[in-house]
Amino acid sequence: MINIVLYEPEIPTNTGNIMRTCIACNAKLHLIEPLGFRLDEKSVKRSGVNYLDNLNYEVYDDYNDFLAKNSGDFYYFTRYGKKPHTSFDYSDCTKNIYLIFGKESTGIPKDILKNNLDKCMRIPMSSNVRSLNLSNCVAIVVYEVLRQQNYNDLLFCEPFKGEDYLEQ
Protein backbone atom coordinates (compact mmCIF):
# COMPACT_ATOMS: atom_id res chain seq x y z
CA MET A 1 0.00 0.00 0.00
CA ILE A 2 1.11 3.52 -0.75
CA ASN A 3 0.97 5.85 2.23
CA ILE A 4 1.32 9.63 2.14
CA VAL A 5 2.53 11.11 5.43
CA LEU A 6 2.24 14.82 6.18
CA TYR A 7 4.35 15.96 9.10
CA GLU A 8 2.54 18.89 10.75
CA PRO A 9 0.91 20.32 7.61
CA GLU A 10 0.06 24.01 7.88
CA ILE A 11 -1.94 24.99 4.81
CA PRO A 12 -5.44 23.50 4.42
CA THR A 13 -5.59 23.92 0.64
CA ASN A 14 -2.38 21.90 0.22
CA THR A 15 -3.77 19.16 2.44
CA GLY A 16 -7.08 19.29 0.54
CA ASN A 17 -5.27 18.81 -2.76
CA ILE A 18 -3.27 15.95 -1.27
CA MET A 19 -6.47 14.35 0.05
CA ARG A 20 -7.89 14.37 -3.47
CA THR A 21 -4.65 12.85 -4.82
CA CYS A 22 -4.81 10.11 -2.17
CA ILE A 23 -8.39 9.29 -3.15
CA ALA A 24 -7.47 9.25 -6.85
CA CYS A 25 -4.63 6.78 -6.37
CA ASN A 26 -5.99 4.69 -3.47
CA ALA A 27 -3.29 5.86 -1.06
CA LYS A 28 -3.75 6.22 2.68
CA LEU A 29 -3.11 9.65 4.18
CA HIS A 30 -1.38 9.98 7.56
CA LEU A 31 -1.52 13.37 9.30
CA ILE A 32 0.90 14.07 12.14
CA GLU A 33 -0.26 16.78 14.55
CA PRO A 34 -0.25 19.60 15.22
CA LEU A 35 -2.14 20.62 12.10
CA GLY A 36 -2.23 24.27 11.01
CA PHE A 37 -6.00 24.07 10.45
CA ARG A 38 -9.10 22.32 11.73
CA LEU A 39 -9.81 18.94 10.23
CA ASP A 40 -13.56 19.21 9.89
CA GLU A 41 -15.75 18.73 6.84
CA LYS A 42 -16.44 22.45 6.40
CA SER A 43 -12.73 23.40 6.42
CA VAL A 44 -11.71 20.53 4.18
CA LYS A 45 -14.52 21.08 1.65
CA ARG A 46 -13.28 24.65 1.28
CA SER A 47 -10.03 23.09 0.07
CA GLY A 48 -11.74 21.36 -2.80
CA VAL A 49 -12.27 17.86 -1.44
CA ASN A 50 -15.69 16.63 -2.47
CA TYR A 51 -14.91 12.97 -1.94
CA LEU A 52 -13.94 12.99 1.73
CA ASP A 53 -16.08 9.94 2.47
CA ASN A 54 -13.72 7.98 0.16
CA LEU A 55 -10.55 9.11 1.95
CA ASN A 56 -8.59 6.55 3.96
CA TYR A 57 -6.75 8.58 6.60
CA GLU A 58 -5.47 8.58 10.16
CA VAL A 59 -4.32 11.35 12.51
CA TYR A 60 -1.46 10.94 14.99
CA ASP A 61 -0.54 12.89 18.11
CA ASP A 62 3.10 13.19 17.04
CA TYR A 63 5.85 11.51 15.01
CA ASN A 64 6.53 8.88 17.69
CA ASP A 65 2.84 7.93 17.71
CA PHE A 66 3.01 7.53 13.92
CA LEU A 67 6.14 5.33 14.15
CA ALA A 68 4.62 3.15 16.86
CA LYS A 69 1.58 2.36 14.70
CA ASN A 70 3.19 1.82 11.29
CA SER A 71 5.89 -0.29 9.68
CA GLY A 72 7.28 -0.59 6.19
CA ASP A 73 9.65 1.32 3.93
CA PHE A 74 9.92 5.01 4.91
CA TYR A 75 11.12 7.64 2.43
CA TYR A 76 11.74 11.26 3.44
CA PHE A 77 11.37 14.20 1.07
CA THR A 78 13.48 17.24 1.78
CA ARG A 79 15.16 20.00 -0.16
CA TYR A 80 18.37 18.83 1.54
CA GLY A 81 18.17 15.32 0.11
CA LYS A 82 20.95 14.25 -2.26
CA LYS A 83 19.16 11.50 -4.19
CA PRO A 84 16.39 12.03 -6.73
CA HIS A 85 13.00 10.52 -5.97
CA THR A 86 13.41 8.25 -9.00
CA SER A 87 16.50 6.54 -7.57
CA PHE A 88 14.54 4.11 -5.39
CA ASP A 89 12.76 0.90 -6.34
CA TYR A 90 9.11 1.12 -5.29
CA SER A 91 7.90 -1.70 -7.55
CA ASP A 92 7.04 -4.26 -4.86
CA CYS A 93 3.27 -3.86 -4.43
CA THR A 94 3.30 -6.07 -1.33
CA LYS A 95 5.31 -3.57 0.72
CA ASN A 96 3.92 -0.71 2.77
CA ILE A 97 5.57 2.37 1.30
CA TYR A 98 5.48 5.58 3.35
CA LEU A 99 6.26 8.84 1.54
CA ILE A 100 6.94 11.41 4.27
CA PHE A 101 6.68 15.15 3.61
CA GLY A 102 7.33 17.99 6.05
CA LYS A 103 5.40 21.08 6.91
CA GLU A 104 5.39 23.88 4.40
CA SER A 105 7.45 26.37 6.42
CA THR A 106 10.30 24.24 7.76
CA GLY A 107 9.98 20.71 6.38
CA ILE A 108 10.82 17.59 8.36
CA PRO A 109 12.94 18.23 11.49
CA LYS A 110 16.68 17.78 11.01
CA ASP A 111 16.97 15.16 13.77
CA ILE A 112 14.49 12.89 11.93
CA LEU A 113 16.30 13.40 8.62
CA LYS A 114 19.77 12.79 10.11
CA ASN A 115 18.62 9.40 11.39
CA ASN A 116 17.39 8.44 7.90
CA LEU A 117 19.99 9.88 5.51
CA ASP A 118 19.92 6.83 3.23
CA LYS A 119 16.19 7.41 2.59
CA CYS A 120 16.27 11.23 2.19
CA MET A 121 15.57 12.48 -1.30
CA ARG A 122 14.90 15.59 -3.29
CA ILE A 123 12.84 16.26 -6.39
CA PRO A 124 15.36 17.74 -8.83
CA MET A 125 14.77 21.39 -9.77
CA SER A 126 16.67 24.52 -10.76
CA SER A 127 18.53 26.78 -8.37
CA ASN A 128 15.92 29.50 -8.91
CA VAL A 129 13.52 28.14 -6.27
CA ARG A 130 13.95 26.61 -2.84
CA SER A 131 11.22 24.01 -3.28
CA LEU A 132 7.98 23.16 -5.05
CA ASN A 133 4.51 23.41 -3.56
CA LEU A 134 3.82 20.55 -1.15
CA SER A 135 0.80 19.18 -2.99
CA ASN A 136 2.74 19.22 -6.28
CA CYS A 137 5.59 17.29 -4.63
CA VAL A 138 3.22 14.64 -3.33
CA ALA A 139 1.65 14.20 -6.77
CA ILE A 140 5.02 13.93 -8.52
CA VAL A 141 6.32 11.31 -6.12
CA VAL A 142 3.19 9.21 -5.70
CA TYR A 143 2.83 8.91 -9.46
CA GLU A 144 6.46 7.76 -9.75
CA VAL A 145 5.63 5.00 -7.25
CA LEU A 146 2.48 4.16 -9.19
CA ARG A 147 4.39 4.13 -12.49
CA GLN A 148 6.85 1.60 -11.06
CA GLN A 149 3.91 -0.51 -9.85
CA ASN A 150 2.20 -0.34 -13.27
CA TYR A 151 -0.46 1.95 -11.78
CA ASN A 152 -1.67 -0.65 -9.33
CA ASP A 153 -5.18 -1.39 -10.69
CA LEU A 154 -6.00 2.27 -11.41
CA LEU A 155 -8.29 3.03 -14.32
CA PHE A 156 -6.84 4.00 -17.69
CA CYS A 157 -10.26 5.20 -18.89
CA GLU A 158 -12.51 7.98 -17.60
CA PRO A 159 -15.20 6.14 -15.58
CA PHE A 160 -18.12 8.56 -15.81
CA LYS A 161 -18.51 9.28 -19.53
CA GLY A 162 -16.96 6.04 -20.76
CA GLU A 163 -13.86 5.04 -22.66
CA ASP A 164 -15.39 5.91 -26.06
CA TYR A 165 -16.38 9.47 -25.10
CA LEU A 166 -13.97 11.16 -27.54
CA GLU A 167 -15.02 8.94 -30.43
CA GLN A 168 -18.70 9.82 -30.07
Q: Can you walk through the features of this model?
A:
The protein has 168 residues and is an alpha/beta fold. The protein is built from five helices and seven strands, in the order βαβαβαβββαβα. The protein has helices at 12-24, 41-45, 63-69, 110-114, 134-148, and strands at residues 2-7, 28-32, 57-60, 73-77, 83-84, 97-101, 120-122. It has a seven-stranded parallel β-sheet. Helix 1 (12-24) packs parallel to helix 5 (134-148). It is globular, with a radius of gyration of 16 Å.
Measured by DSSP, the beta-strand proportion falls in 15-25%
**What is the global morphology?**
globular
What class, by secondary structure content? alpha/beta
Provide the low-confidence segments as ranges: none
The main sheet orders its strands as 3-2-1-6-4-7-5
Question: How far apart lie the N and C ends?
Answer: 37 Å
**Radius of gyration, taken over Cα atoms and rounded to an integer in Å:** 16 Å
**Tally of contiguous helical segments:** 5
Largest sheet: 7 strands, parallel
N-to-C SSE string, H for helix and E for strand: EHEHEHEEEHEH
Helix fraction by DSSP (H/I, runs of at least 4)? 25-40%
**Total number of beta strands:** 7
Query: Average pLDDT across residues?
Result: 91
Give me a quick take on this structure.
The protein has 168 residues and is an alpha/beta fold. It has five helices and seven strands.
